[in-house]
């Protein structure tokens, strides 16, 4: 009997905490204006590391993600693949699963402008801050 009482108390306390977090979470994330962002300054070594390591990796990731999203039905994860799978599910009369796949395809195609914006920002940063490597002058 005592174990049941403690279990009930623990469940009641846990649900009280959960309700409190759910009630407070919107208040904690509500900001009216974003804080101003201070410019970032990099030393030449840090700039070289960013330009030599991070920019190529991030550019490759955005390119790869864009190619995957725009791929054909044979490319796993592409919009065309998701739509083909949704059509296949509809043919099998699995309409709920087809709707899920259609929603995933829509969300995935909505990512293309974000990826294009990220690629543009990377290219702008490269043009402004990354100097091409020059060999020793004679």
Brief descriptors of the model:
single chain, 138 residues, 5 helices, 74% helix, 0% strand
**Spans of at least 5 consecutive residues with low confidence:** none
Summarize the biggest pleated sheet: none
Helix count, DSSP H or I runs of 4 or more residues: 5
Secondary structure class reads: mainly alpha
Q: Give the SSE string.
A: HHHHH
Overall mean confidence score, pLDDT: 83
Write the layout of secondary structure elements.
Layout: H1 2-29, H2 44-70, H3 79-91, H4 95-110, H5 112-129
Helix pairs in contact: 2-5, 3-4
Keywords: Signal
Biased composition (Basic and acidic residues): 85-105, 117-126
Signal peptide: 1-30
Structure description:
Residues 85-105, 117-126 have a biased composition (Basic and acidic residues). The chain is mainly alpha-helical and 138 residues long. It is 74% helix and 0% strand. The longest helix is centred in the N-terminal third of the chain and has 28 residues, at 2-29. It is flat, with a radius of gyration of 25 Å. It starts with a helix and ends in a 9-residue tail after the last helix. 6% of the residues are buried. The mean pLDDT is 83.
In short:
The protein is an all-alpha fold.
């Amino acid at each position: 009997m005592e174990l049941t009482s403690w279990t009930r108390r623990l469940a009641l306390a846990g649900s009280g905490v959960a309700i409190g977090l759910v009630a407070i979470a919107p208040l904690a994330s509500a900001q009216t204006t974003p804080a101003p962002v201070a410019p970032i300054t990099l030393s030449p070594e840090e700039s070289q590391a960013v330009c030599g390591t991070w920019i190529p990796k991030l550019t490759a990731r955005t390119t790869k993600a864009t190619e995957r999203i725009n791929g054909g039905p044979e490319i796993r994860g592409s919009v065309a693949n998701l739509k083909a799978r949704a059509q296949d599910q509809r043919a099998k009369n699995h309409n709920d699963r087809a709707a899920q796949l259609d929603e995933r395809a829509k969300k995935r195609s909505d990512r293309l402008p974000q990826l294009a914006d990220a690629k543009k920002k990377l290219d702008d940063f490269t043009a402004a801050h990354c100097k091409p490597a020059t060999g020793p002058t004679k």
